[in-house]
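Audit log entry. Action: structure prediction of a protein-small molecule complex. Ligand: flavin-adenine dinucleotide. The ligand was supplied as SMILES and no pocket hint was given, so placement is left entirely to the predictor. Protonation state taken as written. Sequence taken verbatim from the request; no trimming, no tag removal. Recorded inputs:
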Amino acid sequence: MSKPSHVVIVGAGFGGLGAAEQLAHVPVEVTLIDRHNYHTFQPLLYQVATSLLNAEDVGAPVRSMFRHQENVTFRMATVTGVDVPDHKIKLEDGSLINYDYLVLAGGTIVNYFNTPGAVEHAFPLYTLMNAVTLRNRILERFEAADRDPTLIKDGALNFVIVGAGPTGVETAGALSDLFYNLLPYDYHHLSTEMARVIIVEMGKEVLAPFKDNLRKYAKEELEERRVEVRLGEAVKEVGPTFVRLESGEKIKAHTLIWAAGVRANPLADILGLPQGRGGRIKLNPDLSVPEHPEIFVVGDMGEVASKGKVLPQLGSVAMQSGDHVAQQISRRLAGEPTQPFKYWDKGFMATIGRGAAVVEFPNKKTLHGQLAYSAWLGVHLALLSGMRNRIETLWNWGWSALTHDRAARIIIDAKDDQAKTRGPA
Ligand SMILES: Cc1cc2nc3c(=O)[nH]c(=O)nc-3n(C[C@H](O)[C@H](O)[C@H](O)COP(=O)(O)OP(=O)(O)OC[C@H]3O[C@@H](n4cnc5c(N)ncnc54)[C@H](O)[C@@H]3O)c2cc1C
């Protein structure tokens, strides 16, 4: 009997998981590789950063997901390159893995658009560690201001968010809830009402991908929640205690949260394959790479298109493209022709804060307010990986809804802890 084909999947995000799961009943051996041993549910990262959820609620161990799928082997490793002619991938430790089919699902990295000071001082929100680092920063700045209230004037409690897309808007609403509804009870002697949340957006609207009525509603809701919305403004420079805007205005702020853009995983650059906007790899309609029918790209890393239209970088696009590619590998093995990817648009949604969200359906009908918020909660709960995470998240949401309390209001700094608790040599 001939050896089954070997499918290597790089990345255990929405796209990679979609592909691996769909290959369950295909006669292939799958090696799924990720630099982390967990899958990250990115849409809820902002809730980790604002202390509503624990990091473990939005991270799910990959090994437990494939406990019952014997044709999947998980490898925790960082992929550093691909030898396209020889069908091998390279890992950070120097080892090589052969593949018959390669599925690239490495997602994106933050794009600072060469903004001076951003690499050193901005706080991105793309990984679980980013979210924990930002949570530490927020809580630590309140502790610092509590010790020395003169720091408030210096911008310790000013939080600037760059980008008024869904990530920026959701983070701003959650910060407002944390600052004005909960932290005043924790800090008896600190003027927490002095804290500011400022969104800076280059475009003329918040939530640009949504319909006009939803954008207007979102802006009004943010402002009602004391979020300062600066439209038509771009960040020119970031320093440790300031953010300079293109208009010349200098905002005193110790924390700048970057929610303004991504670019394809750098693996896309080193492959030497044609790339489109944001470095996304250009693809055939079946999501294979031109001239390399054995390589597929799914999710944010590729220019995934349906009916000739390049799709936005969304979780649902990544999941469906992963499923699709698994089906195409199955078709190839069966000697059948591949099919073009067709996206099933289920609409999109975003929260603005407690009790407020917007939903746009595929037929362009819209919903906003409490009903939209309930729909958002339900959809995100259902999409979370694993029953434990769903129960834990539901509990944290319920507790917070009843009490305004947030479970994860703790500063965990591994490096600091190591240094301070190390015993004598
Ligand atoms: C803060 C935030 C909020 C979002 N909110 C929403 C939302 O509400 N709705 C929505 O639809 N979409 C949302 N998105 C977008 C959505 O999360 C992405 O479109 C989706 O995660 C893309 O899936 P992916 O599989 O392509 O990549 P990812 O989910 O990013 O997965 C990539 C995986 O590859 C791994 N990896 C990367 N490089 C390497 C390497 N060299 N070696 C090994 N492993 C590697 C990473 O560790 C990661 O696990 C949000 C994104 C962010 C950042």
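Audit: result stored. The mean pLDDT is 94. DSSP finds 14 helices and 26 strands in the chain.
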